[in-house]
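Objective 1b. Sequence-to-structure analysis of Regulatory protein, ArsR.
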Amino acid sequence: MSHERERRQVKKLFTFLFITSRGGQTRIRIVKSLLNGALNANQLSTLLSLDYKTVQHHLDVLQQNMIVTKEGRDYGALYRPSKTFMAYLDVFLELVSDPKLSKTTKKEP
């Protein structure tokens, strides 16, 4: 797959995960927090003032889509951005800073 085609596919995935799907704003907040260093779900929950199960759900979605990696098991497992995600960090930052796209983000309850 060509580099440009791969970038388009990544942008499409990121747009879905962070912009158009419900929960996108929460996932943006989680990823931005993890860019500052690895955290576990409880630390993220406290830092972002979110329910633990909500954070856990979004971490599962991000992990399934290779945005974050999990180190360790169970309660104290640490999450950090994946190497794949970091290779496309510029795409993420471009998307989340685009005011036209942020207006289309679904509002969360």
